[in-house]
Amino acid sequence: MTQAPKQGGYAAEYRRSLEDPEGFWLDAARAIDWTVAPTRALDASEAPLYRWFPDGRLNTCHNALDRHIDAGRGEQLALVYDSPVAGREAAFTYRELRDEVARFAGVLTGLGVAQGDRVVIYMPMIPEAVVAMLACARIGAVHSVVFGGFAAHELAVRIDDARPKVVIAASCGIEPARVVPYKPLLDDALALAEHQPERCVIRQRPQCTADMTGRDLDWDQAMETAEPVGCVPVAATDPLYILYTSGTTGRPKGVVRDNGGHAVALRWSLENVYDTHPGEVFWAASDVGWVVGHSYIVYAPLLTGCTTVLYEGKPVGTPDAGALWRVIAEHRVTALFTAPTAIRAVKKEDPRGELLHAHDIGSLRHLFLAGERLDPETYRWATDLLGVPVVDNWWQTETGWPIVANPMGLEPHPLKAGSPTVPMPGYDVRILDATGRDAPPGADGAVAIRLPLPPGTLLTVWQDDARYVRSYLSAYSGYYLTGDGGRKDDDGYVYVMGRIDDVINVAGHRLSTGAMEEVLAAHPDVAECAVVGVADPLKGQVPRGLVVLKAGLDRDPQDIATELVAAVRETIGPVAALRRVDVVAALPKTRSGKILRRTMRDIADGRDTELPSTIDDPAVIEALRPVLRDDV
Ligand code: COA
Ligand code: AMP
């Protein structure tokens, strides 16, 4: 099989990607099977909206499955499903997975789903979720996977935005402590949504069987009668999926990914960044509802001809505290990719790493960590325990693959704790000061990327180019704003310190404080509110709510706080993890009335920040100090 081409070392490749993007990306595109090979890489005719490989045609599912069978990998394992919570393991060869996918693609076409139609997938970590995604790709339909930890309201918002023809769901998910019935959540979402899909396909699970209504179709029954269908070639620039992500407001942004640029970039990244090659076993311990799941559970390993591990459950804790090591040993995993929070959870339960000794994890060559800042303490603990490189990489839903990483397959760089290392090809990463000029080495600023972004990154926000430009491209002309703050050192290593907007990262899950504030503000007793992300030793950050109640209420404030915690869980979902709301007398503001969220966060985190000169009434923040610091 064609390998992703490799020429010079990192410096030469990186320079070439910026100076000769046509040559660099057309070379990388040779690792993909095209029905019409592209003759051009970048189309800048509608800048700042860029397209990649404008005259190429391909099918992503063909590249993920069929081509490997044609090349003799039909009997190799494509997907290993390991579910301690369901007490089940299963494995699919490339041929078996292709057959399932082709048949489910037949189910979808039978329901009238055609190229360009949207399909929402609301499923736990079961093989059918991967089958559904790839079946959409096979027929050129656009999938939109919604994370199972989101509640009905969030699902409804996404259904109304994506306007799917069909929704695919399972009867339930399984969390270590409870079975989560998904079908009632879907029914509630459809009662809330304005848009109605024509049909819902439901995968029944034995842990909790769903009640079916007129538009529901049983997955197994539908599969029994469906005919397999082949791959539909699409334009490289056609959308493959929409993935909603949290922004600063309550309305999530539908990140749109293309087919061609995505396949080329992910294929390049798996070998050059993650040093993982055809036939090897890659395990991304994340969820298909997040971008890490899209890129590194499903697409990149399968595009590369690897075996991917689909793990259902927490990789730590109940029912098996040593699950992380057991899975590596049992499936001969060569690269593990997860979030630092998972490693902190392992460390908390087993500080001396004793559970590791029961397992032979000799197959493991690298541990990759992303999703939140890798704190130096976690980095050192994992490095000492595992004796393999622990590799930080920084990126986001919008980019789909690493912006800054250590290119372990191309040219490993010395690791520096606290830095995800250097920019990847095509990403011209800059640190900008408040005036939009390049900040000197060592100085903090906004992390921005000079346009164009490389292949595989977002095309736009679903059906809203203006929002894409407004949200990402308007702060500094000619740049994409990442929303993160950071700096570079003298060697060009990038340090990413955290969000400079109202997005927070809770246990590696990206959430919007704005969305939580909307829920709090909707309570009839709340006059005003703020949600801030404060440091947490396990989850990195957790949200905390502060509310001011309307005057003259005759209710116990604690009861209202309890209702508010429940409302966030009900509306956004348990994954929001808002456990604490304090009722306070007033919120600190600037003279122009802006709530000083950053100041509150700094105080809660124990940082001695100077109060901003624009503060309206310093007495308000002084009164809040003990609440924020937990000294009450
Ligand atoms: N469906 C339903 N509920 C879900 C869910 C899902 N798919 N995912 C999470 N939840 C629920 C959890 O059960 C929990 O509910 P609870 O409040 O009743 O306990 C809540 O949402 C918060 O979940 P989480 O943030 O995952 O916290 P946790 O304490 O259950 O687990 C970790 C913490 C660190 C073990 C866990 O987050 C983890 O393994 N993370 C790995 C990394 C990862 O997935 N990163 C994503 C991007 S790489
Ligand atoms: P998501 O879109 O869910 O992948 O979240 C992206 C955000 O997570 C980024 O904008 C960062 O704030 C944070 N993030 C992801 N990876 C890292 C990392 N390696 N270091 C620091 N922050 C990270």
Automatic annotation (TrEMBL):
The record's annotation in InterPro entries points to:
ACAS_N, AMP-bd_C, AMP-bd_C_sf, AMP-binding_CS, AMP-dep_synth/lig_dom, ANL_N_sf
Tell me the CDD domains matching this sequence. PrpE (cd05967)
Q: Name one GO cellular component term.
A: intracellular organelle lumen
Q: Which E.C. number(s) belong to this protein?
A: 6.2.1.17
* Superkingdom classification of source: Bacteria
Whether Ligase counts among this entry's keywords is yes
Primary enzyme class: ligase
List UniProt keywords, sorted A-Z. Ligase
Pfam name, any one: ACAS_N
Sequence ranges assigned to domain AMP-dependent synthetase/ligase in this UniProt record? 73-451
**What would you give as a GO molecular function for this chain, any one?**
propionate-CoA ligase activity
The protein here is known as: AMP-dependent synthetase and ligase
User: What organism is listed for this UniProt entry?
Assistant: Streptomyces iranensis
